[in-house]
Each structure stands twice: as structure tokens, then as C-alpha cells.
């Protein structure tokens, strides 16, 4: 099975100039805590609710501050034709819960999460990945 078979295709995307308050509000309204950040069709990073809290709010950022100031740049990614087991192993070893998914032209086409994978891959592998992701460094 390939990543494209389980990834979420309806993905909210933040733009570099979006205010952090707007991005946080979209996360709250959609009940998710992760967004890819793209400039046009090019993925430039990711932002999580934790990034907004720890990097922005805790540092005293204004609600109007641009999200690009607080993103994680050069995020790990998966490709839509990658094997699920391989991606799950990589997520576990790198302690990553969500990955942007790119097509062969490096355009963002979705997001795959541990939850997406755990529902489709053998439970044993999902459990091992979750254990790896949750371990303390």
C-alpha cells in the first residue's frame, strides 16, 4: 500500500504572511494542530499549535506576527508513491507524527499522520511507531 492510499488530501495550508492568530483560529475551528506552510505550490515549512504556543506566544509575539517567523523549515516529507511501512518506520525513528506529502514534482498534495497509517497498516507496526515517536530523547 502507498501513502496516497491513506493520506489526507483536503489539507488546510498556511501562507508565509498569514498572521499567527488567524492560523491558530483555523486550527481551532478545524480541530487540528498541524499545517503545512506553502509559498505558492512550494512547501517551505510546517507550523503546529505547539510552535505557535512555544515559539510565538511564549516569546511575546503579536497576534498579527507572520507565521513564517515561527515555522519549522525543511520538514521531513513523504512522497505519495512511498510504501506505507517505510514511511511509518521513518516516522517512528524520527519521532514525527505528521508528514507533508509531495508528488513527483515536489508539490504538496496531502498530509499523512500516524493516525492515518495506524488505521491501514498492521496494528503491530503502528504500535511500534507510536512507541518510538513517544519515547523521550
Automatic annotation (TrEMBL):
<feature type="domain" description="CBS">
    <location>
        <begin position="71"/>
        <end position="130"/>
    </location>
</feature>
<dbReference type="InterPro" id="IPR000644">
    <property type="entry name" value="CBS_dom"/>
</dbReference>
<dbReference type="InterPro" id="IPR051257">
    <property type="entry name" value="Diverse_CBS-Domain"/>
</dbReference>
<keyword id="KW-0129">CBS domain</keyword>
<dbReference type="InterPro" id="IPR046342">
    <property type="entry name" value="CBS_dom_sf"/>
</dbReference>
<protein>
    <submittedName>
        <fullName>CBS domain-containing protein</fullName>
    </submittedName>
</protein>
<feature type="domain" description="CBS">
    <location>
        <begin position="7"/>
        <end position="64"/>
    </location>
</feature>
<dbReference type="Pfam" id="PF00571">
    <property type="entry name" value="CBS"/>
</dbReference>
Amino acid at each position: 500500500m502507498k501513502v496516497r492510499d491513506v493520506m489526507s488530501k483536503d489539507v488546510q495550508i498556511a501562507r508565509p504572511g498569514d498572521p499567527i492568530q488567524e492560523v491558530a483560529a483555523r486550527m481551532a475551528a478545524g480541530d487540528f494542530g498541524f499545517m503545512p506552510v506553502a509559498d505558492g505550490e512550494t512547501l517551505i515549512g510546517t507550523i503546529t499549535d505547539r510552535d505557535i504556543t512555544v515559539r510565538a506566544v511564549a516569546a511575546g509575539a503579536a497576534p498579527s506576527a507572520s507565521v513564517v517567523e515561527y515555522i519549522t523549515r525543511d520538514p521531513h516529507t513523504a512522497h505519495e508513491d512511498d510504501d506505507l511501512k517505510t514511511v511509518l518506520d521513518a516516522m517512528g525513528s524520527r519521532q514525527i507524527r505528521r508528514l507533508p506529502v509531495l508528488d513527483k514534482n515536489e508539490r504538496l498534495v496531502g498530509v499523512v499522520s500516524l493516525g492515518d497509517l495506524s488505521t491501514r497498516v498492521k496494528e503491530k507496526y503502528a504500535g511500534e511507531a507510536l512507541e518510538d515517536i513517544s519515547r523521550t530523547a
